[in-house]
Amino acid sequence: MKALTSYLEQNRERFLDELFEYLRIPSVSSESEHKPDMERCAEWLKSALLKAGADKAEIFPTAGNPIVYGEKIVSPDAPTVLVYGHYDVMPVDPVELWNTEPFEPVVRDGKIWGRGADDDKGQGFMHVKAFEALSATGNLGCNVKFMFEGEEEIGSGSLTAWCAEHKEMLAADIILVSDTSLMGMDTPSITCGLRGLAFVEIEATGPNRDLHSGLYGGAVVNPVNALCKMIASLTDDATGRITLPGFYDDVHEFSAAEREEINAAPFDEASFAAAIGVETPRGEKGYTTLERKGIRPTLDVCGIWGGYTGEGAKTIIPSTAHAKVSMRLVAGQDFKKVTEQFITHIEKIAPEYGVTVKCTPLHGGYPYVAPTDSAAYRAAARAMEETFGKRPVPFYSGGSIPMISTFERVLGTKSILMGFGLDTDAIHSPNENYPLENFYQGIETIPLFYRYFSETASNE
Amino acid sequence: MKALTSYLEQNRERFLDELFEYLRIPSVSSESEHKPDMERCAEWLKSALLKAGADKAEIFPTAGNPIVYGEKIVSPDAPTVLVYGHYDVMPVDPVELWNTEPFEPVVRDGKIWGRGADDDKGQGFMHVKAFEALSATGNLGCNVKFMFEGEEEIGSGSLTAWCAEHKEMLAADIILVSDTSLMGMDTPSITCGLRGLAFVEIEATGPNRDLHSGLYGGAVVNPVNALCKMIASLTDDATGRITLPGFYDDVHEFSAAEREEINAAPFDEASFAAAIGVETPRGEKGYTTLERKGIRPTLDVCGIWGGYTGEGAKTIIPSTAHAKVSMRLVAGQDFKKVTEQFITHIEKIAPEYGVTVKCTPLHGGYPYVAPTDSAAYRAAARAMEETFGKRPVPFYSGGSIPMISTFERVLGTKSILMGFGLDTDAIHSPNENYPLENFYQGIETIPLFYRYFSETASNE
């Protein structure tokens, strides 16, 4: 592996230059004006896979954004690793809070700043470069397949059907994903749990037009007030629990031993709070912060709007009010069932509050729990232990990568979530960043995973 | 008065053309990009007053938008009428709901369509044309003074100080205002009550930046959820009452006889509901719709926003959430006291909900109640009876013209609210309109008011 180490050393600058090219493409999947950028980004990625040593690479058009596939088959007897990532990124607003141009990446203070620097262009690209180094130096002991989608941030709408259609092509022993975070550079971790997601938009309608709040006020239901009441009614102040009927029915309750293991992970509550500028974390009574954000479900309004939101005062009773509500789901919960429970409940209570409602599911995904006693987990743990100098801990993340559970259901393949991000990377926020150290350490760790996985997998 | 009648008849078309010129100026006071339009509109109005026969007209600059003053003094012994109106208009958004261009007035189906057609360019301009007709035909029996401000829709911030400075110049026996509505063309009415207003913007802040709703959700207060809870807590579902401590302390309770008079006015609840597309009007228990929108106070969110409000889904916990809250006040309530009660209460409950808040008062105004046993009321009632063929009824409007009570406090002068609008005029909404019939009937009624007022006032 000495040739590999020196290859990585010699190509550091070029790897970064190439990542910057990738980051400059504003591939925001939720904004339709970026449609041409999605195509351009897919083309760029296909070409990057070929340059990195793929035998073939192909762009698969979908009803949404294209999927990029590439592969290098070294031997029918070698184990096969399927790398999954996404080339789409989140919107950049509020753009005025960025200190740099979101799509003009720069390195400052040892970090790469720009939208997608971590999530998931930076992390996904580490795999392309690790693969290039293994190929170029003759160290590739696994067959490698890549699939990069362009709709992760909007619910991976096209990927499930595409996977089902290309099941044979995608056959693999493990799916390898870097789209999660480490607990810290001093606390390497492997993500063993992901929350699912049910995301619904509510439109509440009162009068048929905006009304003068003086001439009508007091005699007509205000849909903003009503929407606030409905949203307020969905959670209980005293317990911090969600009051949606049936919501907790299928929630997997972790054992005392499991909870102990979760809470044994080093976690500094004060630093967590300080980093996001809150006095004390808050949530469901009876659970710790690590549990609340890892193994307990949530209900958060991600966006709300209604009436006059411009400068100054406009005294109206708005005709409509809207909210985008995200529910993070945990082991046991089915997003389709929760989405239906949510919509049924909102439609049921709306007349009590004097409004009509239209609920639109925006996306959903299943939660995922990964086993820690598999060949892939052991290979990942060993690889990380070697580069971080410390054994990684299993971590239950609060985030969602709905496709991970879908892969298991559709392809029958488990995933290993070996992410190199940090909580401070501000993914989905202004000033997203990714430390250079994490980028390069990822590129060094991935080849070790291939090595140990090819050893352990063939022994099993 | 025959000359007057024929003057009005002969100049109908020109009056409308001139109004259209006035309506074409987009004098939106709440949007700073329209600042030059405010100046242009004031100039246009000054020139209109001079052309109509004013001895002098002048533009008074203020810290905000200019005030236009004009006068014609016929005799030191004649009673003096001070006409008040405003040349500023509301914003036009949501502009896509307009059927015509907001600032390109047209006549369709017997109505003038455009922003300001009624509120208050159309109504204010009737006074200029009635005055012109009286002057031109030698029928002016009163001294007339005009003051038109450009900040009515944003709280009349400059007018109070200006009135105090020009108290002598503004000395009058009555202030005449057309900025209200008739109960209907078949039910002429004179507005005897106006609600006051306390308008406050709340900014609720949770974490110091937008957070990933998966990685943090469940462990951190979401300021949108918290703001919804706070707003929901301000009203009581069972009674429809406002729960703000002290809010009802000073509310004037009308007597059973007064309430009977209010409810005796012809009012078709079903048509009221149908016109605004709601099944049933709703409000405070124990009061009728007419009472709820006339003599009872309100709490309405006029605008709310927070988090991601664009296309698709963005799974964040927003850092901040905002609401613009309007409280309509009734006889007895002091907007300064209510504003303070509101801010104190929100600041007190915010920590319970886990957010910090910043409350900004946006504007305020006192309620007003007018006497029905005055010379001005009798003159207005007689004038309207003559043109409408029916005695007008006293009406308690839910709207606010905060300056009316300020005039009484600063100038010591009562106002008579002889408005000619209709509820269907959609003021403050898309597709504002003003029937031609109302415009011309107003111009015919105003000279009769001058005539009867000069008779009765000099006899008192």
Write up this protein.
The structure is a homodimer of 460-residue chains. The first copy, chain A, has 460 residues and is of the alpha+beta class. In chain A, 35% of the residues lie in helices and 21% in strands. In chain A, strands 1-2-6-3-7-17 form a six-stranded mixed β-sheet, with helices on both faces. A four-stranded antiparallel β-sheet of chain A has the order 11-13-9-14. In chain A, a hairpin with a 2-residue loop joins strand 4 and strand 5. In chain A, helix 4 (121-136) packs across helix 13, helix 5 (159-165) runs parallel beside helix 12 (402-411) and helix 6 packs across helix 10. The longest helix of chain A is centred in the C-terminal third of the chain and has 24 residues, at 436-459. Chain A is globular. Chain A starts with a helix and ends with a helix. In chain A, 58% of the residues are buried. Chains A and B meet through strand 10, helix 6, strand 11, strand 12 and strand 13 of A and strand 10, helix 6, strand 11, strand 12 and strand 13 of B.
Oligomer status: homodimer
Largest interface, counted by CB within 8 Å of the partner chain's CB: A-B, 97 and 96 residues
Cα-atom radius of gyration of chain A: 23 Å
CATH class of the largest domain in chain A: Alpha Beta
Q: Looking at CATH, which topology of the largest domain in chain A would you report? A: Aminopeptidase
Largest beta-sheet details of chain A: 6 strands, mixed
Proportion of residues in extended strands of chain A? 15-25%
Global mean pLDDT of chain A: 94
Strand order of the largest sheet of chain A: 1-2-6-3-7-17
Structurally, how many domains make up the residues of chain A? Answer: 2
Number of strands of chain A: 18
Task: Give the N-to-C terminal Cα separation of chain A.
Answer: 24 Å
CATH architecture of the largest domain in chain A: 3-Layer(aba) Sandwich
Q: Count the DSSP helices of chain A.
A: 13
Query: In which range does the helix fraction of chain A lie?
Result: 25-40%
Q: What would you give as the CATH superfamily of the largest domain in chain A?
A: Zn peptidases
The backbone outline of chain A, from C-alpha atoms, is globular
Low-confidence stretches of chain A: none
Q: State the secondary-structure class of chain A.
A: alpha+beta
